[in-house]
Amino acid sequence: MPTLNDDILLLIFEAVGTSKDRRRDQSCVKTLLACCLVSEAWQRLVQPILNQVLIIDSEDHLQRRLLNRSPEDLKGVREIVLQQSHPDAHFHLDLGQVLRALPLQNLRSFICFDRATFGGYHSHDPLDRSLIGQVRYSPPPLDHDLSSVREALLCNINGGSSWTPFLLRTTKLRDLTFHGAGWTGHSEYANSPLYLPSEPAPFSLKRLEIFRSCIQKEPLRWLLSSSADSLKHLSVRYMQREWDTFADISKLRADGLLPEVHHLTFAVSDSRGVKNFDDIVRKPLAAWQGLHTMYIYGEDNKCRAAIFHGLSQLQPCPVIEMGVGDMRMIDLKSLFRLRKGKLQPGTHLRLISKRVRTEGRMGGYETWGTQDGQSHEYWSEMEEEAKELAKKHGVKLEVAEVSYYA
């Protein structure tokens, strides 16, 4: 029976120990623990991988996996994941307690899917309703050294007071994701002041991902205040009918604060019931002159068409990629029916016929429909007809399996 060398086995263990959105959860840990039971040789390879990630989703795990262990046992931790064990769980974290117990010199990734506070810092001012939506300065930075953190995923912003002390210490942060965050001062996530530091952000981001979140212009301007020359990839994935954040980001682009962003990922939303939807979507796109590629996913035809026509007006037009999902020829034809704004010659459309794995922290949450294999076969057969249709409108179309940006 053939045997695999340690390098190949390590690659396999890294793959099976990582979920579809590039993070390790409880199921990944269980898989790796099962691998440890196969043989001593496998355990020797798998144990260091297990030691790199710390997952806490209950009070019991907080005690057993962190507070009751010595700093020596925890010094290899490179990624910490804080999350609820299930949606109805009532587990409230004191992040100050977590950071005091965890050796931070090797920590590279900080992921928090849960509500959390830093000790005595309050996330909002419930008694003073006049402060809702007003800008206030945040509490001072934490005492902890978080300069080793390169990647962070943050949830439940609540006006920013929970996270600005943390962000002020992440001087080498490069990859930032907001998930279910409402840094607005008034939204379904938070009714609170907008806590903002008085000094610029200490980090220079390369990638910013906004997933089902709404962040107002003032926090956005602060977050990107030191990233004008470094930010390359922006991913905006909206809640239904939520466009304000993208409009604010586009204003920052128009003001010259995001000149180096060359790739934009955009999730189409639900256009039903929205008046002047084409203008709402296309106006912000005018600020993105110089964009190289844009990847669009989602299956609302009216929204896809509005983005497609809006990008076509940019000269030179960026390469526009769309995941086909359950798209068929009738859906493709709908892209060319938008009355406002004719498609410009030289527009380049790429239909990606296979599932794309994005690099972003929330990339695994993309939905492509359930017929990926059938979609690939369908568009292989319909490719020539689709190209003829696009040619009539002056559009160069290609059907590809691989995205430029993924």
Automatic annotation (TrEMBL):
Superkingdom of the organism of origin: Eukaryota
Protein name per its UniProtKB record: Uu.00g013750.m01.CDS01
Lineage: Eukaryota, Fungi, Dikarya, Ascomycota, Pezizomycotina
